[in-house]
Write a structure and sequence with these properties.
Strand order of the largest sheet: 2-1-3-4
CATH topology of the largest domain: Glutathione S-transferase Yfyf (Class Pi), Chain A, domain 2
Strand content: 5-15%
CATH architecture of the largest domain: Up-down Bundle
Largest sheet: 4 strands, mixed
Order of helices and strands: EHEEEHEHHEHHH
Radius of gyration: 17 Å
Shape: globular
Mean pLDDT: 93
Length: 218
């Protein structure tokens, strides 16, 4: 991946702060690979940390974060937009605001909700939350409901996207979510046939191959 110079921050590679095991981070890494934008990578050492400095100053104590000189971008969508602005060649990206039909818009909403729900469940596991906790049970049911809906509707949602697209935020998020569930062994996804077929197809992209999940060394 080559270094690019932009009007935003000439001659300097932005720094992405996150984790290689994070699906929200992978969304941004996959976008960077697709768009040909070089970046440095800085690992958040401990997700239990309460120090904003470990999250590049993000007051929400969440990742990913992109530092571009004096400017900081918080969250996957913001970062992906900035990466698109820095791309050496403009690509045809379908953003959430382009989804004006209920099916595609709802698919995007549920994918992001499912990603956030999975994070909450993982953090609950790390904290040792009892398995019969009422809120945990609700979150687990919510995740299963969302996956079932997405499996039923992902093909139609994709058919509703512009055919001349190079990339869509919906598809990237969906791929990162489903593959992360398997990576973290949250639940088996093979029974979600439409989602599995989509992920098998999307995984052939070089950007997907280059951003496979792994646990960063301590």
């Amino acid at each position: 991946m080559r270094v690019t110079e932009t009007a935003h921050d000439p001659g300097r590679i932005p720094t992405l702060v996150g984790r290689s095991s994070s699906h929200f981070t992978r969304v941004t890494r996959l976008f960077a690979a697709e768009l040909g934008v070089a970046y440095a990578f800085e690992v958040v050492p401990d997700l239990r940390s309460l120090d904003t400095a470990d999250y590049a100053g993000n007051p929400a104590l969440r990742l990913p974060i992109l530092r571009t000189g004096a400017t900081t971008w918080l969250g996957s969508l913001n970062i992906c937009r900035e990466l698109a602005r820095r791309a050496p060649v403009q690509r045809r990206v379908v953003w959430p605001e382009h989804l004006t039909e209920a099916l595609t818009a709802n698919a995007q909403e549920l994918v992001v909700q499912a990603m956030a729900t999975e994070v909450t469940l993982i953090m609950g596991q790390i904290a040792g939350t009892p398995k019969d906790d009422a809120q945990l049970t609700k979150l687990q049911k919510s995740l299963l409901n969302m996956l079932a809906w997405l499996d039923d509707n992902i093909q139609a949602a994709r058919a509703g996207l512009p055919q001349d697209r190079d990339l869509s935020y919906l598809e990237v998020c969906t791929f990162c979510l489903v593959t992360h569930l398997e990576f973290r062994k949250m639940l088996p996804t093979s029974g979600y046939r439409a989602l599995t077929a989509f992920c098998d197809e999307f995984d052939q992209r070089p950007s997907a191959q280059a951003t496979a999940y792994r646990f960063d060394a301590p």
